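Issue 218. Parser rejects a valid record. Input:
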Amino acid sequence: MLVLELHFTAAPDRLAARPAHRERLARLHRDGILRAAGPWADDSGALLVFDTTRDRLDAIVADDPYYRTPGVRVVGVREWTPVIAP
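Output the parser choked on:
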């Protein structure tokens, strides 16, 4: 699994781009690629958990304009090996 961490700023473009981004996330979840996603409680960023390869995740990020929207920054991508998971 791969974990994608985002950082947010108060740029208004981010909120305008969010509905289309969340629609993409819902499709990825239905397809079993996205396992979980959501913002930090203080809305300073978000965490997304993907069950896919790094190449596929890079393609997902490249295909979604949200990740290039002012106010959104990809902080990092890390491989994660869950010991306990749903």
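Fixed in the parser; the record now loads. The mean pLDDT is 96.
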